[in-house]
Amino acid sequence: NNIHECYIYLGSRFAGDMLSDSSVMARMQKKFWKTKQVLIKATGKKEDEYVVASDADLDAKLEFFHSVQLTCTELLKVIEKYQHRITRLSQEENELGLFLRFQAEHDRTKAGNMMDATSKALCTSAKQRMALCPPLHRLHQEVETFRRRAIADTLLTVSYMEKARTEYRGALLWMKDVSQELDPDTYKQLEKFRKVQTQVRGTKSQFEKLKNDVCQKVDMLGASRCNMLSHSLCTYQTTLLQFWEKTAHAMSGIQEAFRGHVPYQFTTLKVPQVSEMLVDSS
Question: Taking every annotated instance into account, which residue ranges of this chain make up the domain AH (predicted)?
Answer without folding.
Answer: 53-256
